[in-house]
Amino acid sequence: MTTTAAHSAGERTARKHDPGAAPRRRRPGRLRRIGLPYLLLLPALLLELLVHLLPMVIGIVVSFKELTQFYIRDWGTAPWAGLDNYSLTVDFDAPVGEALLRSFLTTCLFTVLSVGLCWLLGAAAAIYMQEAFRGRGILRTLFLVPYALPVYAAVITWAFMFQRDNGLVNHVLHDQLGLTDSAPFWLIGDNSFIALLVVSVWKGWPFAFLIIMAGLQNIPRDIYEAAALDGAGVWQQIRRITLPSLRPVNQVLVLVLFLWTFNDFNTPFVLFGKAAPEAADLISIHIYQSSFQTWNFGTGSAMSVLLLLFLLVVTGVYLWLTSRGRKAADA
Amino acid sequence: MPNPAVRQPRSPMAAPRSFLWSRRIFLTLLTVFVLLPVYVMISSSLKPLEDVSGKFAWIPSGLTVSPYFDIWDTVPLADYFMNSLIVAGAATVCSVTIAVFAAYAVSRYSFRGKRVFTVTVLSTQMFPGILFLLPLFLIYVNIGNATGIALFGSRGGLILTYLTFSLPFSIWMLIGYFDSVPRDLDEAAKVDGCGPLGALFRVIVPAAIPGIVAVAVYAFMTAWGEVLFASVMTNDTTRTLAVGLQGYSTQNDVYWNQIMAASLVVSLPVVAGFLLLQRYLVTGLTAGAVK
């Protein structure tokens, strides 16, 4: 249905500005030529439709339904619930809404800290490694290891390190440095937030490092040379040339880091198991638990839809603000 | 190899000591932070069970390789390994093939809806997995009921899901690579009588092999490391490593040495692949973002 509409639309444009696009030799028929790009896109489109767009539509529909475990086999028959699921999830005085709000705020704080630290480590490492020095290549390879390791293998190792009685973290902090009176728990209680943050930064910063390093290569060298001739020292060059030049790279990088971190499910899931402690109850885990433990898919879907709306709004505002800032800076 | 002239220090002035010292300290601390879990993983995998159950020790009291033999018996790790290989391998092959076609269309043809397509496909990347986990679960269960094609709990369903996870980014990366292949090359091939697909497979694909390798590694890593869908969409026979690794903690004991050994074993294929091909992958991953 979509394809046929796209076909005729494509035909119109193609006719309008096709001449000269390709040497006209041996053309096996107009329709095939015009349809070809769509034909090439078809498999990708179908799959995206099946696995991303269709579920999203169904998710929105389900969020207006009262879908409990009795209806899973035949979810179409579940009764309509109107806005009940939504009013339940945003009623912040009731337990469900209150827990969702707390999880949302936890996720916000976690995301800001994690993205900030990832960017800081990545930028510092990339800038320090901009010039060649002995061992730079090896270091760069080592720094990519957290990115290359499968999430579950890396996070399960961190879970071991954070064990109260036989973990490395308590051994160093308590036994060797004597910083704490008694060995603290890291994977339950308030400390779990710190544990989650450490693991998330460890896993996420190499990506920032990679992208910023690539961005640095695009800065023309003569700018640095000119600055040096004018007497600017290394620190000044970093502040006046390097950091401003990274602006366009940062725009994309921060957005991608934000979305990945905000939606992160794998890290808390492997670190804490199915029940994340309250202090580290990220939104994805929260929705997962509300849906698959109570089998109440309607409420879970309503939460998901709200999450999607939030992400869309944040992304839109972010892109609008940063592009405006860039245009102003360019002008 | 890069031209050595380009690799000179950034400024004619020598870097001040403050810069050199802070660099030394920062990079040392960062290296410790990065390698700490790697050290724990390797050293603990060689410790006897008493060592990992008691207080952590930097130096193992004794070395043993028995965890590397025991991991295969404690849980059916070989089966999980096989499942992960099949799922990740198939998802990679399909994802790369589909991405090649799509990227070719976007890179070489102008058509109505091109921008909408690229933006839509890329934006699916930002949707949280949890958002379509429930509906996809419902869809797979219902397709199974209606047609008898078992997607839920089968490897096929997982392959289908994973290949679309890596697809958007793969298409995006390949568009960049295909754009960098000079158009004259495929125009010349067409003049010589190649059809559009001939030009793609005889000219563009060979010229963009580094990009295709990068995309393949990326797709494989994505599928190999996925946890959320693996934990919901698999059953006992199709379980992948992401879920299977949790089987080493029993009611009474957590075999941490075996968990570490197994983590190391399941990491080897992807880490080795990544490090071997990092040159290609890094250019591929970063090309899009920097543009």
Automatic annotation (TrEMBL), chain B:
Keywords attached to this entry: Cell membrane, Membrane, Transmembrane, Transmembrane helix, Transport
Transmembrane segments: 21-42, 80-104, 116-139, 159-178, 199-221, 255-277
SUPFAM superfamilies noted in UniProt: MetI-like
InterPro entries from the UniProt entry: BP-dep_ABC_trans_perm, MetI-like, MetI-like_sf
Predominant location category: membrane
Classification via Pfam families: BPD_transp_1
GO CC annotation terms, alphabetical: plasma membrane
Keyword Transmembrane helix among record annotations: yes
Domain of life from the UniProt record: Bacteria
Residue ranges of domain ABC transmembrane type-1 in the record: 81-277
Biological processes, Gene Ontology terms: transmembrane transport
Localization per Swiss-Prot or TrEMBL: Cell membrane
Family membership: Belongs to the binding-protein-dependent transport system permease family.
Name of the molecule in the record: ABC transporter permease
Organism of origin: Streptomyces pilosus
Phylogenetic lineage: Bacteria, Bacillati, Actinomycetota, Actinomycetes, Kitasatosporales
